[in-house]
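ingest -> validate -> predict -> emit
validate: passed (alphabet ok, no gaps, 216 aa)
predict: started
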Amino acid sequence: RQICGGHLLEDDYGYSFTQSPLTDRTRRKPTVETSGLISKTLGLTPSTPILDIEQVEEDLRKKDNKVRDHSHFTGEYRGAAHSKCNINYRDVRFVPVIFHNLSGYDSHLFIREVATGFPGRVWVLPQTKERYISFVKFMEDQRLSFRFIDSFKFMASSLDNLAKNLKQQPTLRKVFGQDYDSAQIDLLTKKGVFPYEYISSLEKLQETALPPPEQF
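emit:
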């Protein structure tokens, strides 16, 4: 039998939701674990060996109840889940915004607009008075935020080197080769150039042709 574990969950979002009643169609839905929705809470990935996945499933079947999993945003029934998976599962409430060298000069270009351009508070993790490790922009209703992070903190290399390293990835041409030719893929594996001094106004960004070579 199915045991609803909804009452065990604390509503992390600060607002209530109504669970949708089950229909004949939703009763026939595959389990959430089978559809891959909650597998990540168990540390399972597409590369996890089948035998390991089966062992995890078997261990949970022996000691965990089956519950109805509902979306905390819509109340819609998503499928059957283990009680442990259902309780541990959390919807992500932030959108990651990744910049390379954000902690340096790049964040100075837009931090004021992020703070004042639209309603919502800003949380800053400073390194110094002028350098930020990360900062978060909360939306006015607090249900969603944008988390700005510096990729240089965990990939300490130049964009040029990082782009060149893509050539060593065996899946690069397999994934992109269906839609892009070799010349286009080569562009993906090297740092581009930008005419910083030429771009002196927003109007120049609307131009449909490249500026002359001496502007680069």
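Confidence is low (pLDDT under 50) at residues 1-17, 27-38.
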